[in-house]
Amino acid sequence: MTITALRQTSSDRVTVALEDGSEIKSSLGVVTDWRLFTGKTLDEEELAALKRDSSRSLARDRALELISRRLMSQKEVRDKLMQKGVDEDAADYSVSWLSDHGFLNDESYAAAIARHYAAKGYGAGRVRSELSRRGVDRELWDEAVEHMPETDGKLEKFISARLKDPTDRDQIRKVSAALFRRGYSWEEIRTALRRYTDESIEDE
Question: Could you report the per-residue pLDDT of 103-158, keeping only the tens digit for each?
Fold first, then answer.
């Protein structure tokens, strides 16, 4: 197959036109690496490899753009690429490349998620739920939770803002349920409620 034209569509994007009328969307880096030029002929194996390298290069650039906007897990990047029409090979390649070059790190990502939710007053259960939803491997959950900042102050603040009467069982049930939804264990909730109730009695 002979290349009939190379059209640069942006600073780093090139369209490779072929004699059968088809086109390959590629990048300037791939064109340079392949030493492509108008009139160059590619056999079937070379053409397939060029298409693969072009797809991977464009997917990698798109992945870099995604993670420049916000932190993401490996699974989130892969899923987002495939949602945008990137094929499985190019998506897997992009995630591997980003991970190998230090742009994607699920361990650091898990720690950042734990810090974020701890700062907002959520418990370990909520952090584990978020890490699961974002596709982080289960083996990273415990370490992330273990290094969470202490949330005792936020737990007690939540209780004091909502539990106006420490003897009101209905209020206690509602506060307990709300804390459980925020990811705290029943043991953490009971301990915090007991401490808050004891302090309230002492203040009277």
Answer: 988 888 888 888 888 877 787 888 888 888 888 888 788 777 776 666 556 667 77
The CATH code for residues 105-149 is: 1.10.10
Q: pTM of the entire structure?
A: 0.66
What tokens appear for 21 in the block? 């009328």
In which order are the strands placed within the sheet that holds 13-18? Answer: 3-8, 13-18, 23-27
Cβ(151)–Cβ(159) under 8 Å?
no
22: Cβ–Cβ under 8 A, 6 or more apart, which residues?
none
**pLDDT above 70 for 197:** no
Residue with tokens 């349920």: 177
Separation of CA 3 from chain center = 39
Domain residues of the chain, as ranges? 3-100, 105-149, 151-204
Model confidence pLDDT, tens digit, residues 142-151: 777 776 666 5
**Token pair in block for residue 202:** 């002492």
What does CATH list as the number for 3-100? 1.10.10.10
Residue 7's identity, in one-letter code, is: R
